[in-house]
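REQUEST FORM: STRUCTURE PREDICTION
Request ID: SP-0412
Submitted by: Lab K.M.
Chain count: 1
Length (residues): 116
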Amino acid sequence: FRSLMDSRYFVYSDDVDFCYRSYRANIALWYLPHAILFHKVSALTGGAESEFAIRFMTRNRAYFLRKHMSTWKVLVWAAHFLLLTAPSRLLLGLDSLHIWRLRCRSLMEGLRLARG
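STATUS: Completed
RESULT:
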C-alpha cells in the first residue's frame, strides 16, 4: 500500500505537495468551511526560527520546486535564494553565519532529495 503523502518531506510542505498533485491530476478537493481545527503552532518544532524549522522549511521548499517545476525555474529560484535572500538576511543581521550556512546546506539537501 502506497501512501498518498510523500514521506520524504517528513514535516512542512507535505500538504502543499498533496494538494498540488491532486490539482494536477484533476482530483477535486473539498473542504468544510464550518469545521474547526485546533492546532498548536510550532509546539514540537521550536518555532519558525528554530534550526529545525529553518532546515526543513528551506529543504522542503527546494524539494517541492525541484520535484514539480522546470529546471529553469528551479535555477532562477535557487540563484535568487543563494545570491540575494540568504546574503541579505546575513548582512541585515537577521541571520547569524551559522544560520546562513544552515539555509544554504538545507537548500542543497532539498535539491539532492528530489534526484533520489
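NOTES: Residues 91 and 97 are 10 Å apart (CA to CA).
Reviewed by: T.R.
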